[in-house]
Structures are given as C-alpha cells and as structure tokens.
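Purpose: get a first structural picture of the assembly so the mutagenesis plan has something to point at.
Setup: two entries, given in the order below. No constraints added.
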Amino acid sequence: MNVGIGGSSFVIEEDAYQRLDLYLERFRNEMDSHDAGEVMEDVEQRIAELFYEYTRGKSEVVTLDVVERVIRQLGYPNDSEEEAEPEDTTRRSRRRNGYSGYERYDGLGEKPRRRLYRDPDDTMIGGVCSGLAAYINCDPVLIRVLAVVTFFMGTASFWVYIILWIAVPMAKTASEKLEMRGLPVTAENLRRFSGRR
Amino acid sequence: MNENNIENIKSQMRKGVLEYCILSVLDKNDAYASELINKLKEARIIVVEGTLYPLLTRQKNQGLLTYRWEESTQGPPRKYYSLTDKGRTVLQEMDKAWTEIVETLDILRK
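Result (structure tokens, whole complex):
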C-alpha cells in the first residue's frame, strides 16, 4: 500500500504500516497535547528521512524490519534508554493459554476478528489442518487425526481438503498470523511475531 | 537507595544537560535536526532520538531557537535550526551555571 509521511510517499507493507501507526499513536500519547502536533510533524519528517535512507538501492518497499529499525532508533520521548514497555496490567491482562506471552483481547476497542488462514509455519501438506486448528483454537494434531480418519471413510473429505487448500489464503504477514489466531493486532504482538519468523 | 531511583537521577541529569547540549551545538553552527542528532549521538548524550523532538519544539516556543526551511537535495525541504539572541544569552547563563557545578564538585571531592 501507499502512504504519505513527512511530505514523501512510500510503498509500505501492511503489517509494517500497522506497526508504524501504533508507534506514532503511542509517541503522541506520551507528550503534552500542547506541542504534540508540531513535534509529530518533526518526527514524521525524520521517519521519512530514515525510510528513504534504509530502502534506497534495495527493494524500495518499507518492510516491518525497516519500521522496527526506525522505531528502535527513534524511541519514545520520555525514555532516553530504550523502549520500555509500559506495565499497564490494568488494561491488558496477559493470560497464558495456548499462545503464551501474546496480548489477548482486552475487552476494549474493536474486537479482533478471527479469520481462517493456512498456517505457513506448521504445514504437513498445505497447512489447512493447522490453520483450522488455530481457527477453532485446538491442537493441530487432533484435526490431522480427524482428517486422516475421514479420508478413509470416503472421498468427500479429500475434496474438502483440496478445496480448502485452494480457497483459503496462506497467512503471510505477521498481522495475518495474528488474525488467524484471533489475537489483537497490537504493536507488542506484531513485534513478537515478526521476531519469530 | 534502590536501582530505580538511581536510574531516575541519572536520567534527570541527562535531561537537564541535554538542553544545554543542544544550545551548545547550535552556538557553533546552524544545523538540521538530523545533523544535531548525529552530533549528540557521537557525544553519547542521547541514545534514542525521540527525546530530542519535544525539547526542540519547547526551546523554539521559549524563543531560544528558530528555524528556517531549507531545500535539500533529496526529498522535501527540512528545518534548519539556529540560535536566537535570547538563546545565546541563556547559553551564557548555562555556561556559568555549569562551571559553578563543576567547581562545586571539585571542592567537595578534595
């Protein structure tokens, strides 16, 4: 997708854009509203400068890696050392079930939608079973065993698998992988997911 | 005193000195934000850049700095910062204060 920032236009990947958007929002929230507008202009201009520098000569597309690098370099206004994640446990409770460590939906804002994707990180044939497992939140092995059993019961399930294989998209970007698991697309989750790749 | 407290004092010290540093750098030459950042990073007073932008805007609103738009070879025009007369006066006062602090420590450490 195309995005204008700091008076320049860039081609940016969607998950990279979401990460950037969250970053800018948090940056703005850390400041007095009095100066925020003006400071954000400067920050956006600097981001444009760095995007230009980091993508020049390469693909010219702003990826999540580039955004992460820029964010590491810029940091936040109130912290001179490093990106300290705020411990706002009141707002986000980090439960550990299934995908430990990821932020769960906190009951506020837009509810994350869960979508059916094929899981590229865990495939036997086409990643259909693991994608289904993520969709209904159970162990992929269970789905696979069920699938194998139904294969022996008739050809119908075989065709269902083929159709799903064709029709269901692969979860390519970090934000799609989060959607596949019904996890909210937050900065923190994206950071974790992109680190896993 | 716990570690948190020490970190807090250190960051307060750095923050105070940072404003002084910005004025000192601009006293020598006018500079783009990116040049300013590179200088301050070299001198290891800042690690991340985000701290700088709110300070620049505040110092500008206090009338210590001013900027003009300069064309650049690539991309849109950029802000070129310079010190105002008021900024220069403040810098002189800060120089004095800094010397005093250093002297105080010298005396105490003897």
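The mean pLDDT of chain B is 85.
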